[in-house]
């Protein structure tokens, strides 16, 4: 049963008077549940408990934290159909997507557990002393990563599970050894409550300190602001709009002690269609891209919002086929009336820009909150000089830019803001011949894709889901894959420290049997 309460440490709490409801976009009506926004006292209590929990949790062994993360995955699985039904009711996303996202969420938790069990992620680096060195002796120096402290995670609207309560940000922060306070996304507060109950149960079963996890309800930005400004919070994870992410980033940098905000924000994910792809497989790619643009009503951070090519008959044919395909795809519900409204506004703004032409639009009748696809086209020089067209339109939308030549295409890439992904459709010969274009794209993105669609992010250690601003606030870090743990740690070096008092990861005997860098060489041997 959904209670609408906050989770403060291992207890539920509802002291506030501000209430709100979530919304079923398919039925176009509110869900039956009522949620209570957290009060300042409840927020302070969650932070105080997290501070206390950190004293113990930061020293938990990798094996113990792994047991906790695996237990969270098990408890999420044990929620069974109730989680899937609540997710679909609050998001309008289909059951298959809900189940897939649940699997991905559990997979992420288990991947971090495996990382902890293996242990080398702490990056233990040992430089042994050289007392005889001239002109000065070299001291013994040993460094490793340590957790930074309580972290605030903002749940995101478009991934109610995989980027929310127990999503990648939470899993990676808990793996690092940081207690987590989730600021629940107001559009799927019931899904968040079920997952919070699962995390709390797992924490109790595995003997984690009270306060290692809290879930704070809110509708409106004040609660999130208070959390970010709390002096005991050490970092923030966020996925959402550029406006929201940059507001939180600026807020955090104005604190007496500024803290990092790892925000993943907007991206239009440029796709470049080289001549070989258009001539040899134009129809194939048009069909693939019609599917990718409309997948999940276009509500993916990796949605292909910009397709670039040099004018040719093959490009015209590609555009026509894409148009035909798009206009046949039935609209699907968007997450919420507000996101639907934002999509309509963004799409109308783009369509009203001078010299843009419609390639395709779904013209049939659609239910309220359903996103009708739209694809525009425009000449390269017009796109280059109108940055309104460079902005993300979150939904089933894309613009195809027809360039005069490769130089114009390269100039456009140079004028774009930072992106999560950049895709090239073409062959290896073109990658070499058009290396200036490839280089220009590489400067702007966190992931280069060849002959595929950008939607669908593989969760694996080599994944980099990040990119230059405004795709993220820090291009060095990923929010997908086990490297995401690096956002929540900080190195400390020990100089001339008594060997027996060093953390296990830095001891000569290497009791954890992890891979370390000893005097410049990767090894799992004793020093
Ligand atoms: P959002 O508006 O950025 O909100 C995300 C979370 O941050 C919410 O919990 C929100 O709180 C909070 N927040 C936003 N601005 C804040 C501020 N100034 N101070 C404190 N907290 C703040 O994103 P959304 O609700 O998920 O969707 C809105 C739009 O964001 C979409 O239409 C889309 O354009 C974009 N979006 C992009 C991506 C992407 O991956 N590129 C993903 C999701 C959304 P409240 O809701 O409680 O106000």
TrEMBL record:
The organism's place on the tree of life at top rank: Bacteria
SUPFAM superfamilies reported for this sequence: ALDH-like (SSF53720)
Pfam family, one: Aldedh
Stretches assigned to the Aldehyde dehydrogenase domain: 18-460
Keyword Oxidoreductase appears in the UniProt entry: yes
Keyword Oxidoreductase (UniProt): yes
Gene3D superfamilies: Aldehyde Dehydrogenase, Chain A, domain 1, Aldehyde Dehydrogenase, Chain A, domain 2
Keywords: Oxidoreductase
Protein name: Aldehyde dehydrogenase (NADP(+))
Organism: Galbibacter pacificus
């Amino acid at each position: 049963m959904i209670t609408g309460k906050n989770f403060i440490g291992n207890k539920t709490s509802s002291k506030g008077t501000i209430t709100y409801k979530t919304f079923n976009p398919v039925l176009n009506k509110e869900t039956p549940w009522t949620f209570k926004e957290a009060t300042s006292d409840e927020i302070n209590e969650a932070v105080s408990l997290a501070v206390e929990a950190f004293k113990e949790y930061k020293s938990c062994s990798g094996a113990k934290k792994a047991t906790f993360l695996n237990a969270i995955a098990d408890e999420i699985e044990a929620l069974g159909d109730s989680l899937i039904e609540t997710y679909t009711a609050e998001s309008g996303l289909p059951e298959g997507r809900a189940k897939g996202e649940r699997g991905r969420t559990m997979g992420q938790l288990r991947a971090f557990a495996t990382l902890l069990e293996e242990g080398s992620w702490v990056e233990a680096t040992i430089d042994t002393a050289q007392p005889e060195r001239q002109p000065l002796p070299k001291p013994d120096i040993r460094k490793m990563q340590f957790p930074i402290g309580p972290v605030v995670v903002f749940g995101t609207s478009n991934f109610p599970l995989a980027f929310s309560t127990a999503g990648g940000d939470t899993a990676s922060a808990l793996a690092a050894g940081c207690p987590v306070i989730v600021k629940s996304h107001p559009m799927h507060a019931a899904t968040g409550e079920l997952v919070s109950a699962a995390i709390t149960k797992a924490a109790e079963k595995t003997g984690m300190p009270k306060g290692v996890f809290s879930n704070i309800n809110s509708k409106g930005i004040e609660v999130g602001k208070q959390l970010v400004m709390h002096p005991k919070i050490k970092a923030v994870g966020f996925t959402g709009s550029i406006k929201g992410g940059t507001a939180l980033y600026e807020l955090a940098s104005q604190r007496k002690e500024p803290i990092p905000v790892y925000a993943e924000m907007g991206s239009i994910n440029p796709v470049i269609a080289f001549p070989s792809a258009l001539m040899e497989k134009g129809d194939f790619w048009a069909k693939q891209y019609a599917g990718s643009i409309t997948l999940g009503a276009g509500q993916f951070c990796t949605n292909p919002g910009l397709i670039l090519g040099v004018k040719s008959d093959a490009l015209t044919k590609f555009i026509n086929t894409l148009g035909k395909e798009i206009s046949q795809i039935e609209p699907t519900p968007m997450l919420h009336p507000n996101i639907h409204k934002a999509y309509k506004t963004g799409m109308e703004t783009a369509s009203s820009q001078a010299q843009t032409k419609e390639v395709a639009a779904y013209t049939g009748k659609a239910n309220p909150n359903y996103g009708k696809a739209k694809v525009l086209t425009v000449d390269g020089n017009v796109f280059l000089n109108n940055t309104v067209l460079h902005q993300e339109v979150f939904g089933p939308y894309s613009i195809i830019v027809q360039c005069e030549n490769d130089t114009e295409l390269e100039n456009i890439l140079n004028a774009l803001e930072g992106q999560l992904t950049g895709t090239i459709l073409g062959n290896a010969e073109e990658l070499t011949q058009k290396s200036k274009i490839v280089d220009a794209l590489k400067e702007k993105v966190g992931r280069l894709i060849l002959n595929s669609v950008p939607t669908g992010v593989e969760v694996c250690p080599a994944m980099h889901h990040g990119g230059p601003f405004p795709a993220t606030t820090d291009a060095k870090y990923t929010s997908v894959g086990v490297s995401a743990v690096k956002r929540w740690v900080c190195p400390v070096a020990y100089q001339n420290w008594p060997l027996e008092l060093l953390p296990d990861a830095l001891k000569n005997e290497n009791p954890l049997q992890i891979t370390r860098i000893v005097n410049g060489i990767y090894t799992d041997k004793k020093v």
